[in-house]
């Protein structure tokens, strides 16, 4: 069965976006620096090689689609993206990799696992969707791209989870362009 990894970029003080988010700046003022590490194509190529499918929330889809285009976040690899949403958008890029799931996170995970086979299912991006998957016990590993910046406020990742103590086992580290990439297995 595929491994489910929640993958996100985060400021050193635990924010996935800076305060003051707008349509023009969906990660808040200065928030784009959370993704500066993605210019390291060798690191991304290694990550995509093991990727079977992606799950993203509707906000991540809406704000990322202009950059992703029809191929999604995996680029030329064209891995399927299952977008968890209350309502599918009226249109989506023709020939795109996007599938809209309106019946919950468990359904999205079942569909993504079927598409991924033995490869990784990546729950991508947003704090809300990530917290839902983590709280439901559906995530095997956390992949945090820790960026050397302090936002002071914004969208916190782990606030409100109330899981008690959760043991994490560090399984991998890497560094690219000032960003520390950390991977943890979640203890059960």
Summarize the structure.
The protein has 188 residues and is α/β, with parallel strands linked by helices.
Distance between the termini: 17 Å
CATH-defined fold name: Dihydrofolate Reductase, subunit A
Compute the number of structural domains.
Answer: 1
Report the CATH superfamily. Answer: Dihydrofolate Reductase, subunit A
Number of helices: 4
What is the CATH class designation?
Answer: Alpha Beta
Oligomer: single chain
Number of strands: 10
Shape label: globular
Largest sheet: 8 strands, mixed
Category from helices, strands and their pairing: alpha/beta
The main sheet orders its strands as: 5-4-3-6-1-7-10-9
- Low-confidence segments: none
Structural features, described:
33% of the residues are buried. The protein has an eight-stranded mixed β-sheet with strand order 5-4-3-6-1-7-10-9, sandwiched between helices. A two-stranded antiparallel sheet has the order 2-8. It has a single domain (4-186), classed as 3-Layer(aba) Sandwich (Dihydrofolate Reductase, subunit A), CATH 3.40.430.10. It is an alpha/beta fold and 188 residues long. Strand 9 (168-176) and strand 10 (179-186) form a beta hairpin. It contains four helices and ten strands. The protein is globular and about 40 Å long. The protein is 22% helix and 31% strand.
How would you summarize the topology of this molecule?
Blueprint: E1 4-11, E2 15-18, H1 41-49, E3 51-57, H2 58-68, E4 81-84, E5 98-101, H3 105-116, E6 120-124, H4 127-135, E7 141-147, E8 154-156, E9 168-176, E10 179-186
Parallel strand pairs: 1-6, 1-7, 3-4, 3-6, 4-5
Antiparallel strand pairs: 2-8, 7-10, 9-10
């Amino acid at each position: 069965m595929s491994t489910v990894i929640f993958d996100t970029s985060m400021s050193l003080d635990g924010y996935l976006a800076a305060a003051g988010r707008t349509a023009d700046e969906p990660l808040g003022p200065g928030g784009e620096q959370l993704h500066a590490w993605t210019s390291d194509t060798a690191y991304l190529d290694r990550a995509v090689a093991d990727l079977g499918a992606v799950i993203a929330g509707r906000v991540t889809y809406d704000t990322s689609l202009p950059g992703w285009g029809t191929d999604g976040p995996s680029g030329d690899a064209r891995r399927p993206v299952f977008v968890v949403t209350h309502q599918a958008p009226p249109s989506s890029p023709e020939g795109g990799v996007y599938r809209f799931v309106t019946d919950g996170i468990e359904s999205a995970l079942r569909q993504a696992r079927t598409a991924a086979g033995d490869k990784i299912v990546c729950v991508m991006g947003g704090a809300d969707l990530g917290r839902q998957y983590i709280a439901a016990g559906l995530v095997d590993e956390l992949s945090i791209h820790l960026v050397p910046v302090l936002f002071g406020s914004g969208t916190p990742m782990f606030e409100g989870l109330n899981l008690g103590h959760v043991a994490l086992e560090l399984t991998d580290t890497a560094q690219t362009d000032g960003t520390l990439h950390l991977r943890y297995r979640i203890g059960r």
